[in-house]
Design brief:
mainly beta; 82 strands; 4-stranded mixed sheet
C-alpha cells in the first residue's frame, strides 16, 4: 500500500480533507495534500492527490493518469516535459524515453479556493535492443587491416572500440592490426529517443605474427694487424640484426664492427628476436680465421737539439701497440732511459729501437735513428731603464741571457752616461744608450747584442695655469696667466682652431664652443719638461638687447602705424603681435583691427655669434572710434494708421536698436506700433563693437493721434475761408478750376464740394506739407449766382478741417462744335492730366520724405 504524504502549509486540516486522505490511502494512492489558507475566508480549501503512475515502456504508446481534488471538482492535466510526453484529458501520449512529469491543477469555484498544483513523475522506458556479431576470422598481422561487422536489432548504427589496443585498433568498421595476439573488438549502441542502450557485445580473433630470416655474409680471413672487420647482417623483416662474438679472446663486436683481439677463429652469431609483428628468426653463425700480425716500428726522428737543452723526449711505437725498447749507440753524446734522451756533448746521437715477437705478432725489424746535438742558441733580454734625473747619480742595469750566462755592458754615449759592470753613472741630462752582450761557451752560441736607451732628465718642474672663466665671443680675446716652478717661460696653445687660437699668452676667440688652452714648459739642460696643464672654458655667444620705441595711443580708425625696434647686435629684429585680435603686424607696420591693448613683441633669435635677445615689447592703447546716431522724428500717426518704420542711422554704419518706455506705443526692431493717443518717446541706441564706442542715445517723439472721425460734408457751406482757386471768385458752368489749400494731414484724402446743393467735384490727397491742389470742372448746369467751393478733410491732429471760398457762376460758356466723343469725357481727362502734373511739380519742388508712408483708412462720406 502506498504511503500517505501530507504537506501542511497553512491552518488546520479540515475533517473532510482528512477523511478523503485516509480513503485514498486505503486504495493505494499517494496523497499530496497542501493546505493553504484561502484568500477569501468564505471559500473552502482543497488539495490535489495523485495515483502513482508506474514506469512505462515507450512501446505502450499511451498511459492513463488519475488525480483527484479533495473538493471532488475535476482536475486539469498539463505536461511539464512535452518533449517526452504530452497529455490530452487524462491520457498521456509517450513520445520518447525519459522522465515524464504531469502537473495537476484545480482552479476552484464559487465554493472552493484554487488548489495548490501537484505533479507526478514516471519513467518512459526505451525499447530493448541487442547486438549481433558476424564472426571475424583469424588474420595474419601482415594483412594490415580487416573489416568487422556487427548489427543492432534496432537498426541503429553500431560503434566499435578495441579492447586490445596493443594488438589492434579500430576506426569505424576497420580494424588495424598492430601486433600478434588476440584482437578483441567491442560493439556498442547508445540508443536514441526510442531505444534504450544495447548491452555491449565482443568479438575476438587471433592475429598471427609473420616469419622472418637472417642473411649474414661470412667475412674473409684476416690477420691481427687488420685490427677491425666490418660485417653485414640483415633480416627479411627489415628489423635490426644483433651480431655477437662466441670467443671474446679472438674478437669482439660492437655495432657490426668486429675488433680482432688475438689469433684464432672468430665465430660470430647473428640473431633477430622478432617483435609484435614478426616471430624470432633462426640464428645464423659465421666463422673466419684470424692470423698473427706482422709488427713494424714507427720512430719519429728528433730534430737537431742543443746540448744545453739537457734532454729530448722520443716516442717510438709498434703497430701491435706493444712496448718498444730503445738503446743508445753513442753514450759520449747521449744516453737513453725509457722515453727520455739525455744530451751530454756536441755530436751525433744514435738510437736503436727493437720489438720482439709474441704469440699473436711476429718480431718487428729494428729501426735506427740519428740526430745532431749542437750548441744552443741564446738571446739577451735588456729592459730599458725608466727616465731618470741626472741628480740620481747612478742606476743598475738588469739584462739577462736565456742561457743563464753572465752579460757584459758597454756605454755608447759616454758624454751622458758611463758603465762599470752593471752600474750606470749618469753624467748629464740627455739620452743614454747602453749595449748588452753574451759571447757564448761550449754549449751556447754567442747571443745577438741587445741595446737599451733611456732618458736622463733634468730637475722636475711643474706649471700652474690660472683658470679662465666662460667668456662671451664679443669680448674678443682672453689673456692667459701661467708660471713654471723652474722660472722658465711657459708656452701656450689653444684648440680647436675654429673656436680659439693662441699667440703668446693671448687667446683670440673665433666662434662659440669649448676652448681648451694648454700651458707647457719643455725644460732645458738642467730641467725636465713640465707635465702640460690644460684648462677648458666655454666661448659663449654675445649678449644683445632690443630697444623698441613707444608709439602713441591712437584710434582704431587712425590706420596702420610703424614701430621701430633695433638690436644692440645690429641684427634685424622680428616684430609680431601678442594680441592679434586687437592688431596685426607685418614687418614694422602695425594695423589696428579692434579697440584694446595692442601688444607688439620684438625678438632677435641670434646667430652663431649672438645669443637670442630677451624679448622686448610695447603696448599701444587702441581706442574705439566715436560714432553718432541721426534719428529723424517720425510723423504723427493714429493707432488706426498701423505701424511706422523708424530710420535712425549710425555714422559707423552699424545697426541701430530702439526702445520705448511709454504706453503709447511698442517697438520691435525698427517698427513702431501705436497703441494709444499720446507721446511715444523712442530712444535710438548703437552699443558699438570691437571698433566703435557706443554712440550717445538719441531721443525722438512720435505723436500718436486719436483715430480720425469720419469726414462729412455739411448740408450748408460753412464760412470757413482759407480755400484758394484759379476762378478768382467768378467762373462759368463747365469751366475748369484749380482748387488749392493747406493744413491737412499729409497723405490724407481731401474732398472738393460745390454748393448751393452739395455736389462732389473730386477727391485728392494732401502732400507731405499738408497742402493739396485739385483741378475740378464747374458743373455746366449750375444756376447763375453765388456759390461756395468747399475742401473737406483731416487736419494733422485728426480733427475735421474745412476750407471754403465763394464763387459767382455766370452763364455757361458757348459750346464749340465738337466731333468725336462727349466733351465732358475729354474735360475730365484733361483735368486729371493737369492735376497729376501739378502734384508731381509740387513733389519735385518741396521734396517728398520717403522714409514714412501714410495711407488714409477712413473714407469720405
Amino acid at each position: 500500500m502506498a504511503a500517505l504524504g501530507v504537506r501542511l502549509r497553512h491552518g488546520p486540516i479540515r475533517t473532510g480533507a482528512a477523511l478523503a486522505a485516509a480513503l485514498l490511502t486505503a486504495i493505494g494512492a499517494t496523497v499530496s495534500m497542501p493546505v493553504a489558507a484561502s484568500a477569501d475566508p468564505g471559500l473552502a480549501d482543497q488539495y490535489v492527490t495523485w495515483t502513482d503512475v508506474p514506469d512505462t515502456p515507450l512501446a505502450a504508446g499511451t498511459v492513463s493518469v488519475a488525480a483527484v481534488a479533495s473538493s471532488g471538482l475535476p482536475v486539469r492535466y498539463t505536461s511539464s516535459s512535452t518533449d517526452v510526453c504530452t497529455v490530452d484529458g487524462d491520457v498521456v501520449t509517450l513520445h520518447r524515453q525519459g522522465r515524464c512529469t504531469i502537473r495537476g491543477t484545480q482552479p476552484g469555484n464559487a465554493s472552493f479556493a484554487a488548489a495548490e498544483p501537484a505533479s507526478t513523475t514516471f519513467a518512459v522506458l526505451g525499447r530493448a535492443q541487442r547486438i549481433t556479431w558476424a564472426r571475424t576470422p583469424d588474420t595474419p598481422v601482415t594483412a594490415g587491416t580487416v573489416r568487422v561487422s556487427a548489427t543492432a536489432s534496432s537498426g541503429l548504427p553500431v560503434a566499435y572500440t578495441s579492447g586490445t589496443p596493443r594488438t589492434c585498433t579500430v576506426r569505424g568498421g576497420t580494424v588495424t592490426l598492430v601486433g600478434g595476439g588476440t584482437c578483441t573488438v567491442r560493439a556498442g549502441q547508445p540508443g536514441d529517443d526510442e531505444y534504450a542502450p544495447a548491452p555491449h557485445a565482443e568479438d575476438s580473433f587471433d592475429v598471427a605474427r609473420s616469419g622472418q630470416a637472417v642473411t649474414f655474409t661470412r667475412p674473409d680471413d684476416a690477420s691481427l694487424a687488420t685490427r677491425t672487420v666490418r660485417v653485414a647482417a640483415t633480416a627479411t623483416s627489415g628489423l635490426p640484426v644483433a651480431v655477437t662474438s662466441a670467443d671474446r679472446h679472438v674478437c669482439t663486436v660492437r655495432r657490426h664492427l668486429v675488433t680482432l683481439v688475438g689469433a684464432g677463429t672468430c665465430v660470430l652469431r647473428a640473431d633477430q628476436p622478432g617483435n609484435a609483428r614478426y616471430s624470432p628468426a633462426a640464428r645464423v653463425v659465421r666463422a673466419f680465421a684470424v692470423g698473427r700480425g706482422r709488427q713494424h716500428i714507427t720512430f719519429p726522428v728528433p730534430g737537431p737539439a742543443a746540448v744545453a737543452a739537457g734532454t729530448v723526449t722520443i716516442a717510438p711505437a709498434a703497430n701491435s701497440g706493444l712496448p718498444v725498447t730503445v738503446a743508445g749507440a753513442a753514450p759520449a753524446v747521449c744516453t737513453v732511459a725509457g722515453g727520455t734522451v739525455t744530451l751530454h756533448a756536441v755530436g751525433t746521437c744514435v738510437l736503436r729501437a727493437t720489438r720482439p715477437a709474441t704469440a699473436n705478432w711476429t718480431a718487428a725489424p729494428d729501426v735506427e735513428v740519428r740526430f745532431t746535438v749542437g750548441r744552443g742558441a741564446q738571446q739577451v733580454t735588456f729592459p730599458a731603464p725608466p727616465p731618470t734625473a741626472a741628480g740620481a747619480g747612478t742606476l743598475t742595469l738588469a739584462a739577462a741571457a736565456t742561457s743563464g750566462l753572465p752579460v757584459t755592458y758597454a756605454a755608447a754615449t759616454p758624454a751622458v752616461c758611463t758603465v762599470a759592470g752593471a752600474v750606470v753613472t749618469l753624467v748629464r741630462a740627455g739620452t743614454c744608450t747602453v749595449h748588452a752582450d753574451q759571447p757564448g761557451d761550449a754549449a751556447w752560441e754567442p747571443a745577438a747584442r741587445a741595446t737599451a736607451t733611456f732618458t736622463v732628465t733634468g730637475d722636475a718642474q711643474t706649471v700652474t695655469l690660472a683658470p679662465v672663466p666662460d667668456t662671451r665671443l664679443t669680448d674678443g680675446t682672453v689673456t692667459l696667466r701661467a708660471a713654471a716652478t723652474s722660472g722658465l717661460p711657459v708656452r701656450f696653445s689653444a684648440a680647436p682652431r675654429d673656436v680659439c687660437t693662441a699667440r703668446g699668452a693671448v687667446v683670440t676667440l673665433r666662434t662659440p664652443g669649448r676652448c681648451t688652452v694648454t700651458a707647457a714648459q719643455p725644460g732645458d739642460a738642467g730641467h725636465a719638461a713640465a707635465p702640460p696643464v690644460r684648462h677648458t672654458f666655454t666661448v659663449t655667444r654675445g649678449a644683445q638687447r632690443i630697444t623698441v620705441t613707444q608709439p602713441p595711443a591712437r584710434n582704431v580708425l587712425d590706420g596702420p602705424f610703424t614701430v621701430a625696434a633695433t638690436a644692440s647686435s645690429y641684427l634685424p629684429v622680428v616684430l609680431s603681435s601678442g594680441s592679434p585680435h586687437v592688431c596685426t603686424v607685418a614687418g614694422t607696420t602695425v594695423t589696428p583691427v579692434a579697440a584694446g591693448a595692442c601688444i607688439v613683441r620684438a625678438d632677435q633669435p641670434g646667430n652663431d655669434q649672438w645669443a637670442p635677445a630677451p624679448r622686448a615689447g610695447r603696448t599701444v592703447r587702441i581706442a574705439p572710434a566715436a560714432q553718432t546716431v541721426a534719428f529723424p522724428a517720425p510723423p504723427a500717426a493714429a493707432v488706426s494708421d498701423g505701424t511706422v518704420t523708424l530710420t535712425a542711422t549710425a555714422t559707423s554704419g552699424l545697426p541701430v536698436t530702439y526702445t520705448t518706455g511709454g504706453d503709447a506705443c511698442t517697438v520691435a526692431g525698427a517698427t513702431v506700433t501705436p497703441l494709444a493717443a499720446g507721446a511715444c518717446v523712442l530712444v535710438a541706441h548703437q552699443d558699438g563693437d570691437h571698433r566703435f564706442a557706443a554712440a550717445p542715445d538719441v531721443t525722438a517723439t512720435l505723436t500718436v493721434l486719436r483715430d480720425p472721425p469720419p469726414v462729412t460734408v455739411p448740408a450748408a457751406p460753412p464760412a470757413a475761408g482759407g480755400l484758394g482757386s484759379t476762378a478768382g471768385g467768378a467762373t462759368v458752368g463747365g469751366a475748369a478750376v484749380t482748387v488749392h489749400g493747406g493744413g491737412f494731414k499729409p497723405g490724407s484724402a481731401v474732398q472738393v464740394v460745390m454748393y448751393s446743393a452739395p455736389q462732389r467735384l473730386g477727391t485728392t490727397y494732401a502732400a507731405a506739407d499738408g497742402t493739396f491742389a485739385l483741378l475740378v470742372v464747374v458743373p455746366a448746369g449750375l444756376d447763375r449766382g453765388g456759390h461756395t467751393l468747399l475742401a473737406a478733410g483731416l487736419a494733422a491732429d485728426n480733427t475735421l478741417r474745412l476750407l471754403s471760398t465763394p464763387v459767382t457762376v455766370s452763364a455757361a460758356a458757348a459750346a464749340l462744335p465738337v466731333t468725336g466723343g462727349p466733351v465732358r469725357t475729354l474735360a475730365v481727362l484733361g483735368a486729371w492730366a493737369v492735376l497729376i502734373g501739378t502734384v508731381l511739380r509740387l513733389l519735385g519742388r518741396r521734396g517728398w520724405p520717403h522714409r514714412w508712408t501714410y495711407r488714409a483708412r477712413h473714407a469720405l462720406t
